[in-house]
Design goal:
By secondary structure, the chain is mainly alpha-helical. The chain is built from ten helices and three strands. Strands 1-3-2 form a three-stranded antiparallel beta sheet. A hairpin with a 2-residue loop joins strand 2 and strand 3.
Length: about 230
């Protein structure tokens, strides 16, 4: 039963991270159990874990997908801007040659997907981006830092960002990753910290730009050719 619950948890977490469920959507135990052809007990356990992660909000016989306000997003970015440059600095001192090589390979893979025109392009870019940031935290070799950062990196509001990136935004993001990686390869802690701080600040400004653009859309303007 525990193994089944773990599998359900992983599947539902991937769905939440990819934006499969809309914010505020109701997830009912019986519907998930029926869809996944399991009993409600492991579904209940998986949903509870996701509530503890902050990805869901508890509700009767299920949960709802957590909604994010402007202040929630700003707080997550502020915390990442405090913690992740520190992780990059530690990685510059502690990353293994194999980890640096993997970062470089991920940067090349991300660039390939940015240039691709395949239907799953954005999902692939997001997955590679997420792997890069997790690898950097792993390379910092700090259990406490990893525990604090891991959930921030996997929050749906963070994962879904590439859906409103322009082509140039995505190319810039790859270049930022390359600068961070190069600083880590050269064991330049200060440069690694600065490069990561710049990358996160640029990402936050894109979120703010998108928030303003969304707020400006009215029902009257949301029409073909507007």
């Amino acid at each position: 039963m525990a193994k089944l619950s773990d599998t359900l948890y992983a599947d539902l977490r991937r769905r939440l991270m990819s934006g499969y469920y809309e914010p505020g959507a109701r997830l009912r135990e019986e519907h998930i159990a029926e869809e996944m052809k399991v009993s409600r007990t492991p579904v209940r356990a998986a949903l509870q874990r996701l509530v503890e992660d902050g990805l869901l909000v508890a509700a009767a016989r299920g949960a709802t997908v957590a909604e994010w306000t402007r202040w929630d997003v700003a707080e997550v970015f502020e915390l990442r801007m405090l913690l992740e440059p520190h992780a990059a600095g530690l990685a510059a001192e502690r990353a293994t040659p194999e980890q640096v090589a993997e970062m470089e390979a991920l940067n090349d893979e991300m660039l390939e997907w940015v240039k691709s025109r395949k239907d799953d392009r954005l999902a692939r870019i997001q997955a590679v981006n997420n792997r890069f940031h997790h690898l950097l935290v792993e390379a910092a070799r700090s259990g406490r830092l990893k525990a604090m950062l891991q959930n921030f990196l996997d929050m749906p509001i963070m994962i879904g960002s590439f859906y409103f990136y322009t082509e140039q935004d995505m190319l810039n993001s790859v270049e930022h990753h390359r600068q961070v990686t190069e600083a880590i390869r050269r064991r330049d802690r200060r440069h690694a910290e600065q490069a990561m701080a710049f990358h996160l600040r640029a990402s936050f400004l894109r979120f703010e730009r998108q928030r303003v653009a969304s707020a400006d859309v009215t029902p009257e303007s949301d029409s073909p050719g507007a």
